[in-house]
């Protein structure tokens, strides 16, 4: 099975030598857990935003959606991939499913589905308030608004987290004060969600946050919350793509139609 990951953009966190190192670190963690057996995964470079300063709001998400859509069409037409994994808060996934003849999954959509399979109430941990609002909108769009108990926001930016991931290897981060602050922040927001929002599972959403999964898991265990499940969106998306490929399923043309749809419904 051969899959391709499409990150939303190139930013300062893109290294020509290392590629998309945040996604690559997450893939290496999956590989060590045996999640990538029989899977060959490529990682796209992402859309080049140059050196512009960008936020993480819906304007930004819309800007990158067209670029992601173009890449989906390109990789679909190549005929060398069995499935496509879109990472990040990309608003154009529905359009991508309409133009693709192979499975297209999004990390957000997959994370929500996995959390709904294992419990009834989940929270999403995001880096910024605009990202939190997008996460809430996605829950409404995907039909999970009744299960999304809250979206909790850290006090540190995704930019700061990504810089740390870029500058320090995983085994070196334990001695970096900022790393401890990041983990403590994520754990604190998670505990608030458990105690105040009564959640049974926690989704680590923003991609850099997912690189701290092991430490967050340890922090929750130490606090007595070992029964609370952690879901990483990227890993969930890879698994969802594997399921679709193995079951020989693609997104339903009736739900994601083009003008060439033959079995047109009489009512929408």
Task: Count every beta strand, where a strand is a DSSP E run of 2 or more residues.
Answer: 10
Instruction: Please indicate the percent range of residues in DSSP E strands (runs of 2 or more).
Output: 5-15%
Through-space gap between termini: 36 Å
Q: Give the C-alpha Rg.
A: 18 Å
How many H/I helices? 10
Number of structurally distinct domains: 1
Please provide a brief summary of the model.
With 268 residues, this protein is of the alpha/beta class.
Task: Characterise this structure.
A four-stranded parallel sheet has the order 3-1-5-6, sandwiched between helices. Strands 8-7-9-10 form a four-stranded parallel sheet, sandwiched between helices. Strands 2-4 form a two-stranded parallel ribbon. Helix 2 runs parallel beside helix 3 (93-99). The protein has one domain (2-246): Rossmann fold. It contains ten helices and ten strands. Strand 5 (83-86), helix 3 and strand 6 (104-106) form a beta-alpha-beta unit. The radius of gyration is 18 Å and the shape is globular. It is an alpha/beta fold.
